[in-house]
């Protein structure tokens, strides 16, 4: 049963503070929304030994490990090679990916240097995950213990696309084979986190029923997770939350205020005009 997940991020730019790791937060949020417990988030630099340590540690704690970064063509991109060594597998060149790289460079009128073929190497037996927005595909590897390691591009927009298209649907399918876990999301506006928690005191929290809160100006995200039990129990809890905080809920999905306003404008065929005056550009 896939219940626990760990997240790995690699790159010297992360451990030196030059780049903020937004990938881990994004992945953790999406996994929690599917009912997984994220037990650890690890960051390591471009070091073979540290990456091996992170792989061992993460797979000891979790059923699913998702990593990002280190899939490029340069010498500091160590991920695929280290993962192959960790599992005792050979690296194999995927000709379909290699040809896609050649066509990508040719279409841009650029010379493809030999080191770019590094992005077409994968651990033997790995499932290749396409990258619709970039040149470096990801991959999925299963362990002998029926655990899984998934590796994605470290570029945020590429990672997000790969996660949505190739990872999250697969995770949902895997979890359907195990314990029934239901989740619900509420987007809340006009309440502080403390006030929201106070209003939700009547919700019976237990090992089977959990609430999580995430503050992100100017609103809040509330998630309900219910393990096991009948569908009716989950529906009753969702209804109870609606009764407690209904006037402050603007959506029951992972949508932002901007997305909802934009959709409403499109549905009504309305336009929006903005004017700035006397602010000095502030």
Molecular structure report:
It is a single chain. By secondary structure, the protein is α/β, with parallel strands linked by helices. The chain has 2 domains: 4-175, Molybdenum Cofactor Biosythetic Enzyme, Chain A; 181-268, Alpha-Beta Plaits (2-Layer Sandwich). It has helices spanning 12-15, 22-33, 48-61, 79-86, 95-107, 156-175, 193-199, 231-245, 257-268; strands spanning 4-10, 37-44, 64-68, 91-93, 121-123, 127-129, 138-142, 148-152, 181-189, 209-216, 219-227, 249-251. The chain has a 6-stranded mixed β-sheet, with helices on both faces. Strands 10-11-9-12 form a 4-stranded antiparallel β-sheet, covered by helices on one side. Helix 2 (22-33) packs parallel to helix 6 and helix 3 (48-61) crosses helix 4. The longest helix is centred in the middle third of the chain and has 20 residues, at 156-175. The termini are far apart.
Structural class: alpha/beta
| Quaternary structure classification | single chain
CATH superfamily of the largest domain: MoaB/Mog-like domain
Look at the structure and give the mean pLDDT.
92
Low-confidence stretches: none
According to DSSP, the number of beta strands is 12
Shape verdict:
globular
Compute the number of structural domains: 2
- Per CATH, the class of the largest domain reads Alpha Beta
* Distinct helical segment count: 9
How large a portion of the residues is in β-strands, by DSSP E?
15-25%
Order of helices and strands: EHHEHEHEHEEEEHEHEEHEH
User: How many angstroms does the end-to-end distance come to?
Assistant: 52 Å
């Amino acid at each position: 049963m896939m219940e626990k997940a760990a997240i790995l991020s690699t790159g010297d730019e992360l451990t030196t503070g030059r780049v903020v790791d937004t990938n881990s937060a994004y992945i953790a949020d999406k996994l929690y929304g599917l009912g997984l417990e994220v037990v650890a988030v690890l960051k390591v630099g471009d070091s073979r030994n540290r990456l091996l340590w992170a792989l061992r540690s993460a797979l000891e704690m979790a059923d699913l490990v998702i990593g990002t970064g280190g899939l490029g063509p340069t010498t500091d991109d160590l991920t695929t090679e280290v993962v192959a060594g960790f599992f005792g597998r050979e690296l194999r060149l995927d000709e379909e990916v290699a040809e896609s790289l050649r066509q990508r460079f040719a279409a841009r009128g650029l010379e493809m240097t030999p080191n770019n073929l590094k992005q077409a190497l994968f651990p033997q037996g790995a499932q290749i995950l396409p990258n619709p927005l970039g040149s470096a595909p990801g991959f999925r590897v299963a362990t002998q213990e029926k655990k899984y390691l998934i590796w994605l591009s470290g570029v945020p927009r590429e990672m997000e696309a790969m996660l949505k298209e190739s990872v999250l649907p697969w995770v949902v399918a895997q979890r359907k084979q195990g314990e029934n876990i239901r989740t619900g999301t509420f987007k809340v506006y006009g309440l502080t986190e403390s006030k929201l928690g106070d209003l939700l005191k009547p919700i019976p929290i237990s090992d089977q029923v959990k609430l999580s809160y995430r503050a992100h100006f100017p609103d809040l995200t509330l998630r309900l997770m219910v393990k096991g039990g009948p569908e009716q129990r989950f529906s009753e809890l969702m209804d109870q939350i609606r009764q407690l905080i209904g006037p402050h809920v603007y959506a029951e999905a992972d949508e932002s205020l901007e997305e909802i306003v934009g959709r409403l404008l499109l549905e009504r065929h309305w336009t929006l005009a903005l004017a700035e005056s006397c602010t000095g550009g502030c």
